[in-house]
Specification:
By secondary structure, the protein is mainly α. Helices cover about 55% and strands about 10% of the residues. It has a two-stranded antiparallel ribbon with strand order 1-2.
Length: about 160
């Protein structure tokens, strides 16, 4: 086991928007270490979002991330032989991580020609409060609400 918790390595901001959140998103989007390919997909998707919505693609992406970010989630806890789903607040770092992963996962599941098309579609849908990633957030919140009775088991 590790003696101390591992240090978080600092992220370099992306070249276009100078934002560390974009780098984090691209790192999750990347496959097989192809970071330049992931950047190409991301920037193409933002261009397509700009064409579709006639707004700044970067701002629409930020709005989409904010709409998909969960506030509460359920965590399993075993108490007296039974497993309970206990609602818990989500840490800030995990909130961002979950929203990024959901956006990418559900954009990969969409129908479309290229990954940039699919990502653009999911970003536009999430910014409007629609789409699979937004539905996942709503389901997570609904599950936490349904299990509110077990909140007193919280650690």
């Amino acid at each position: 086991m590790r003696k101390a918790q591992a240090k978080k390595l600092p992220l370099a901001p992306d070249p276009k928007f100078n934002d560390k959140l974009v780098t984090r998103f691209v790192n999750n989007l990347m496959w097989e270490g192809k970071k330049s390919g992931a950047y190409t997909i991301f920037y193409d998707a933002l261009d397509k979002v700009t064409k579709q919505t006639s707004e700044d693609g970067y701002e629409v992406w930020k709005r989409a991330l904010a709409n998909v970010t969960p506030g509460v989630e359920v965590r399993s806890r075993r108490i007296g032989g039974a497993t309970f789903q206990i609602p818990a607040e989500v840490r800030q770092d995990r909130k961002v991580s979950l929203s990024i992963k959901w956006l990418i996962r559900y954009s990969r599941d969409r129908n479309g020609r290229s990954m940039s098309d699919k990502l653009a579609g999911e970003i536009v849908a999430a910014s409007k409060g629609e789409g699979a990633a937004f539905k996942k957030k709503e389901d997570t919140h609904r599950m936490a609400e349904a299990n509110k009775a077990f909140a007193h088991f919280r650690i």
